[in-house]
Design brief:
The chain has helices spanning 2-27, 33-47, 62-75, 79-103, 108-118, 131-151, 155-175, 177-192, 198-222, 227-246, 252-266, 270-281, 295-298, 300-321, 332-352, 356-363, 365-385, 397-403, 426-438, 451-456, 481-494, 531-540, and strands spanning 442-446, 497-503, 511-512, 522-523, 541-547, 550-555. By secondary structure, it is mainly alpha-helical. The strands form two sheets. Strands 1-2-6-5 form a four-stranded mixed beta sheet. It has a two-stranded antiparallel ribbon with strand order 3-4. The longest helix is centred in the N-terminal third of the chain and has 26 residues, at 2-27. It is globular and about 90 Å long. The protein starts with a helix and ends with a strand. The relative contact order is 0.11.
Length: 557
């Protein structure tokens, strides 16, 4: 018994170490200003004492910002602390998938394979902390808690696992609404798959959800948030953007086409096979009674249902969010593992009923699924993780090593490689950071490289974590534009801004300048977008300096 525990401890340690190592390896490769700056700046804001929906607005990511503030507090405001955050959660995701599959009845040798494959698809596609990845992680944790509550042998485990579902779903939802909302019905359904006391388990899950909602509301009120900002930037603008995207899929055929397109672009075989096998497994209740005795129905059907759900969650996420397809598949190997668990249960049932050949054929699905998962993970690591395809760049290891020597001290862990739209060099960024550190007063950045706030030690001024017209900031013709401009001017004065940094000629994301008209004309946020701010800057302008494409406007009193 003691030897088994030791071996299990070594196995768990190996899984966690590989997940951590894989995460750290890919996290430092390349820099995408828009995606990579968001949670860095969010963590820096929280570390500085800023409160969401009071000092800044964001449609998602509050959980990630708070966690990143902890990593910054412990390890300094550096790129290593940023990458370590993602790598730690990558390791936890590996352990979470392993535990989920073990609870579903899969043998540990097989669960380890699917868990290790997960290490390459969870955080590595983007590398650094991101709202989407954390939403998937805490949703996975909620599924795991619901399953533990349903299958727990002890009353204590059942009780605390059921109560944990609510807080974990809240952490997922505060990371990002989509895909978190997909997992609410799935966790409730899993809670009903109980060995006994099904009603008690379900009531405790609902009680945990209600208590969590009440605590979150009280916490936000105590922090002094502006509820109008919550309604605008957490509900109204994201809902409008989501509805606009869904409107592009006007028929079931267009949705199916998008699904097929996603699998074709990703080139993953095992999730597609798992989805097909899972759908077939859902037909078990329709079989004659002699074929669905024992584990063949009571344990197999939930495994197949979970496999189908996890695959559909990935597909709907990619379709709804329009994000890169590569970041929407963190749980596809967990889906394959669910089908493997179902095959194991069916094999055991066939053997119990004197059908050794059928049992052998069903068992053969395990190594086949595992082999397909390993091949898919290997191809994904080579074609997505190593190239940084999800970050819109092509990673060049030799060039990255040479360029990285010029980076600011806080970015020493980063291996420099950027998308084609980025026009500044590591030397430009380093010179800008040193200049801002030496400047008195606050700094306002109009651009996407918001990491300069934390690197220069200047508190973030912009009300938005990033400039996304219509989502994080109203367009000039949107309701709430004047309110946003007033919030921007208030932050400008409170932090005594004496330097305005304009990054290049445009922000990354633009907007339609002539809504409802054709042909469409696109515009981007500039100082002129906010007339009152532009007037203030012109009145106080004293000098200007350039650091590559960065223009630093020095303001007088």
């Amino acid at each position: 018994m003691q030897g088994e525990r030791l071996l299990e401890g070594v196995r768990i340690l190996a899984l966690a170490s590989i997940g951590l190592g894989v995460g750290l390896h890919y996290a430092r490769m390349g820099y995408m200003p828009l995606d990579h700056s968001v949670c860095f700046d969010g963590g820096w804001r929280v570390l500085c004492g800023q409160v969401p929906f009071r000092d800044y607005v964001a449609p998602s990511g509050l959980t990630v910002h708070a966690l990143q503030a902890v990593f910054f507090a412990l390890f300094g405001v550096t790129w290593f602390a940023y990458c370590l955050h993602a790598a730690v959660f990558n390791a936890l995701a590996v352990l979470g998938v392993d535990r989920l599959l073990v609870l579903l009845g899969l043998e540990r040798a097989w669960s380890s394979v699917f868990a290790l494959c997960t290490a390459f698809v969870f955080f590595p596609p983007v590398g650094v902390p991101m709202m989407d990845s954390h939403a998937f992680f805490f949703s996975l944790a909620a599924l795991l808690a619901a399953l533990a509550a349903a299958r727990a042998a002890s009353a204590r485990t059942l009780r605390w696992s059921a109560y944990a579902v609510g807080p974990l779903l809240a952490l997922a939802f505060l990371s990002k609404q989509i895909p978190s909302v997909f997992f609410l019905p799935a966790t409730l359904a899993l809670a009903l798959w109980s060995l006994d006391r099904r009603r008690t388990t379900f009531v405790r899950v609902l009680a945990g959800l209600a208590a969590t909602a009440a605590v979150c509301a009280l916490a936000l009120a105590a922090l002094g948030v502006d509820w109008e900002l919550v309604d605008t930037y957490w509900r109204r603008l994201p809902s409008a953007e989501g509805s606009r995207r869904l409107a592009l899929f006007s028929s079931p055929q267009s949705l199916v086409h998008r699904f097929v397109e996603t699998w074709r672009d990703l080139g993953l075989l095992s999730p597609a096979a798992a989805f097909g096998a899972g759908l077939a497994g859902l037909l078990l209740p329709l079989l004659p009674a002699r074929f669905r005795r024992g584990a063949a129905l009571s344990r197999t059907w939930p495994c197949c249902a979970l496999a189908v759900f996890l695959t559909l969650a990935a597909l709907f996420f990619v379709t709804w969010t329009f994000n890169q397809e590569e970041i929407g598949v963190p749980l596809v190997f967990a889906a394959s593992g669910c089908v493997a668990a179902a095959s194991l249960h069916l094999s055991a049932s066939a053997r119990e009923h004197g059908k050794p050949r059928l049992a052998g054929a069903l068992w053969l699905a395990l190594p086949l699924l595992a082999a397909a998962a390993v091949l898919d993970a290997w191809a994904f690591a080579r074609e997505v993780d190593a190239t940084r395809r999800a970050n819109d760049l092509v990673f060049d290891a030799r060039a990255a090593g040479e360029a990285s020597r010029e980076l600011p001290e806080g970015l020493a862990y980063l291996r420099w490689c950027v998308p084609k739209l980025v026009r500044y060099s590591p030397g430009d960024l380093c010179a800008l950071v040193e200049y801002l550190r030496a400047r008195a007063g606050g700094v306002f950045l109009l651009g996407d490289t918001s990491i300069v706030y934390g690197l220069s030690g200047k508190e973030s001024v912009a009300p938005s974590l990033w400039f996304h017209p219509g989502l994080t900031a109203p367009r000039p013709y949107d309701r709430g534009f004047e309110r946003y401009q007033a919030l921007l001017l208030r932050r400008f004065r409170e932090l005594d801004v004496q330097t305005v940094v304009v990054e290049g000629e445009r922000t990354w994301v633009g907007y339609r300048a002539n809504p409802g008209k054709k042909p469409p004309e696109f515009a981007y946020f500039t100082l002129a977008t906010w007339p009152k701010l532009a007037r203030l800057v012109e009145e106080r302008r004293r000098a200007e300096r350039s650091f590559g494409p960065f223009r630093a406007i020095e303001l007088g009193p």
